[in-house]
Structures are given as C-alpha cells and as structure tokens.
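Sodium/proline symporter
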Amino acid sequence: METATLISLGIYFLAMIGIGLYSYNATDNDVSGYMLGGRKLGPGVTALSAGASDMSGWMLMGLPGAMYVSGLSSTWIAVGLLIGALLNYLIVAPRLRVYTEIANDAITIPDYFEKRFEDKTRMLRIVSSLVIVIFFTLYTSSGVVGGGKLFESSFNLNYELGLYITAGVVVIYTLIGGFMAVSITDFVQGCLMFIALVLVPIVAIDHLGGISEVNQIVTNINPDLMNWVAGSSVLGIISALSWGLGYFGQPHIIVRFMAIRSVKDIKMARRIGMSWMFVTIVGAITTGFVGIAYVAKTKMDIADPETIFIVFSQFLFHPLISGFLLAAILAAIMSTISSQLLVTSSSLTEDFYKTFVNRSATQTELVVVGRLSVLLVALVAIALAYDRDSSVLQLVSNAWAGFGAAFGPLIIMSLYWPRMTFAGALSGIIVGSGTVLLWIYLPISINGQTLSATMYEIVPGVIFSTLAIIVVSLMGRMPSESVQQMFTKMLTTLKANT
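Predicted structure tokens:
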C-alpha cells in the first residue's frame, strides 16, 4: 500500500519541479519577473493561486480538526473567511492593482507603502519588512509542521525527515521558477484540493450510510456537536467571524492582485476564486463533521484530530487514490509555503539588500539574492517546526492576526483615504502588530482565560490600528500635492478600465 501511495506522491513532486523548470525558461530574468511574473497572470491562475496560497494545510488539517473537536460551532470561522475573501476582491483588488503600478511599479507591499506616502526616511519600508519577515517565518513554519505530521502519520517516517521533504520540494521549484512557478503550481494544487475536498466527504458519507445516519451518530455522541452556538459566547462567535478581517493584510494573497494581467480580469478572478473557496471550505468542514461519526462507529483511536482527512484517505480509498489525496494535503501546504517564501524573499531582496546593502545591484544579482533568501527563510522555518506539538491552526491564527492588524487597515485606508499620512501609516503598523503580540503574550486572564482565548487578537489589533491611523494622520500636515495627484490618477485609471 505504501509503495503505491509513494509512487503517486513521487509523480506529484516531479510535476511540481517540472513546473519550476518551465517557469524558469518562461520568465524574464529580472526582479519584476522573478517576484511578480511581469504582471501577466490570467484570472484563473490568479484566483486559484490566491485561494490555494491562502488556505494552506489548515484547510485539510486545521479546519477539519477544529470541526472534529467542536462540531458545527467551528463553522463560524468558515463564514467569516468567505465574507472576508469576497470583500477583499471587491474592496482591495481593483485599486491595489492600479495603484501599485502607478506608484512607480511597486513590486512589494513595503515598496508600495514607501512610494504611496513618499517616505524619504525608509522607516515604512523597514518596519513593514520586519513584520513580513517575522510573521511569515512563523506562518511558513506552520506549513512545514503540517508536512511533518503528514509523513509521520501516513508512512511512519521520522517527523523531522518529513519537514525536510516538504520544505525541500517547495524550495526547489520556488528557487528555480520564482513567482510564475509559484502561481502555476498553486493553480494545479488548487485543482487537487478542490477534487479532494469534494471526493472525500462524499465517499465518507456514503460509507456511513448517508447524511441522516451521520447526523444520528453525532447526535448520539453529543447533541451539542450539532449546535452552531453550543459552547460559544458572543465574543467567541465574533472572534471566529473576525478571521475574515485578516484578508486585507495578507501579503501572499494581495500580491496576486498586484500581478493580475489587468483590472478587467479581476471580476472573472473573483467569480472563480469565490466559487472554489465555497466548495472547498464546505468540503473541509464536512470532512471534520463526518469524521466524528466515522471514528465513533469504527471505534478508532485518533491521537491528533488534525489528521482526520489523512485517516479517510488511508482507510476508504485504493492506495493510488490515497497518494492523490495525500498529494492534495501537500498541495495545500506547499502552495502556502511557496507563496510565503517568495514574499519574504522579495522583502529581504528589495527592501533590505537593494535599499541598504547595494543600491546599484544588477537585476541578475538581485535575483540571486532572492533565491538565497528563499533558502534561508526555509531553513529558519524548519528549525522552528522542530516542535512536533505545534498546532497548525494555532500557528496560522497568530500569523494571520499579525498581518491582518498590521497591514489590513493600512491597505484599505491607503486606497480610499487620500488624507492619510506617512506618520499615520507607520503608527498603524506598529500599533496593530504590537497589540496582537501583547494580546497573545501578556500574562493577563479574564475568568480564568487568556486574552487570546477570550477574544481573537485580530479584533483589538484592527481596532487600535485603525484608530492610530486616523488620529495620527489628522494631527499631521496634509499630504503633498504629488500624493494627491497620484491618488486622483489612480481613480481616473480605475474608472477608465472598469
């Protein structure tokens, strides 16, 4: 069984590396080509690469695991994510695509901030780059943890070996093919995830005798598992829904909006992306829910709830199909790791090396530095992932909140409020990220619960970041005339292309 499954995984790995080689030959050998693919992405690739890089291993491991433990009350996270993703396409995507090109072709988020606010001090670039490097290294680590758990639970391989296999394949195709390789592999991986999250819950439900039988088994175990609000306070539901707030500040997602071929393609990308997301999220939560009934009926013992999808793939399918389903998990993990590695690499290359080490660096030199940065970040993420008890969902939630609070209000207000100033932007990043970190680590409890357990840290982070931006901006001088003109040009261009 393991041999056939490994053959399927081997084919998948070779296909991903092959895409990397293809992208290397098809991409211009300059920084824009390596980091943004020359802004040539079509709507289909944009939508699925954004979705696949967004969902990561938590889609097939973290979310089903949460559903398995808590029942339908975990669905609020999915609702919040769907709303947030839709608003991201509507509110952020069109303006960011236009504005980043008008702002002297900004190719990273820190680059956009610096040019949007005419920051001569480079402080915006430095602070935002530090936030990206810190939180993305943590985020990347969560994906590597998922890969280690997959190989350990599926093949009884050493957990640490699983970390190196997972990260190694991603590093190869990301390092070789850059943004184009990451986007194309994300598209393929998104298709794999879609098929797997339709196939697994349908087969599992059929195996158990239908959805009514599943509902009956779950009800007999604990009726509260069938209740959307059981065990949840108002603050708990708000916290779950607030995951949607994070979308506006995720660099690995919004960079897809910067790279799409044209503003006119965003509408089609939105339709494809939201359809894909709805089906896959429903599949993920259904997998976790059906898993409750399956484990109870078979009297199986599961040590880690986040492996329920792996259990289904091993016991309900032929080994070759199992390999395909495990490849779907790896696809979810790898798509996010590769995107995060590339964004972090872009920041290290453009925002640190080119800005502070060698301002006259050639395009070839910058691409080499970018590739070395991919390798460096991957090694650090592997080191952090050595903690085998790390929860994929917990690691993702912390990093998601950090980005959402640090960049979300800043991105939206920079696209809609011309009165916003450099000082306001810098305050928003510092206050947002600082609030999240304090909320997580301050030794304060409410009714015996930590601040983070009482309210998801993204909520206070976004609130205080927004207030900081508004108050500090209004206290300062009006932005320069050239900033006002750039904002007006963005609106004019947007209107002409929509």
